[in-house]
Amino acid sequence: MPAQRGGPSTPPSHRSGWTDRCDRLARSRPFEIAIVVVILANGIVLGLETYDDLSPAGTALHALELFFRAVFVVEIAVRLAAYGRRPQDFFRHGWNVFDFVVIAAIFIPGLHGDPALLRVVRVARMVRLVRFSPGLRTIVSALWRSLPGVTGFLALAVVTLYVYGMAGWLIFGNRYPEEYGDIGRSLLTLFVLLSLETLPDLIQQGMAISPWTLLYYVSYVVITVNLLLNILIAVIVNSMEEARRLEMTERLAPGYDEDGDGVPDEVDRIALTQRLDDLRAVITELERELRIDRDDGHGRPHRDNARIRR
């Protein structure tokens, strides 16, 4: 889910006075603060409902829940109205879709008959706080963009664990069946070993069989804990940097959309960066020409005049 706020970019021909007012309201800081306060209050009410001692206040808490629903519905209506005659553009942004689904889900018929599922939907509203925080949006965007790299990492990690699991079953299976009795137990033991908490005990068990088993655990720790986890961290950090660049692009040029897909992405960032570089080159050239003109104005002969005199 790309992490952008998804402000309206409706063409002027599709806008009206009412649309502009809704747009200004949806983008205003007081409106955002009010929604954040309501989301936090919604979370507090959810927490209070878990206390049996507050059961007498159930009517008041239910009234607050109805109030929260009304506020969220009005919020979505205002943000939809900000798109004027192109409300479909509202759903081009991932966070807008998430907000709409979370708020609309509460009105699904039959949902109120399942208190647990209803509470899950209400808890999901808390995730909407991410949309109002640039830092959280960047983190979520980075995690989302790191999924392709993480998928490759998981495939490599599974293969590595499986190879070491089979080797562990062959080496320790007969002696320690509880840890390595079959491939499932071997994989579980090695997965827990990723925390390094059980490493001393496992090394001690291995040394009872042969000192050469130390190579098994040392190589496993080096490859999985050090190498693979560092690769995972590198993938996430790289995605974080990319998400920050896209967030900066959105801040520098809100609504800029080079490829016309309605969503700020890497294509838009590269295009905007290229335009900024071209603009810097033009400014540098203008500054150079201005310096030449100033030099000419202080009595220095112009280059063309100097050539004529020669």
UniProtKB/TrEMBL annotation:
Name of the protein in its database record: Voltage-gated sodium channel
GO cellular component: voltage-gated sodium channel complex
The organism's place on the tree of life at top rank: Bacteria
One GO MF term: voltage-gated sodium channel activity
A Pfam entry, by short name: Ion_trans
Keywords assigned: Coiled coil, Ion channel, Ion transport, Membrane, Transmembrane, Transmembrane helix, Transport
Domain Ion transport residue range list: 29-245
Compartment(s): Membrane
Spans traversing the lipid bilayer: 31-48, 60-82, 94-112, 153-172, 184-203, 215-237
Topology term for the membrane: Multi-pass membrane protein
Stretches assigned to coiled coil: 269-296
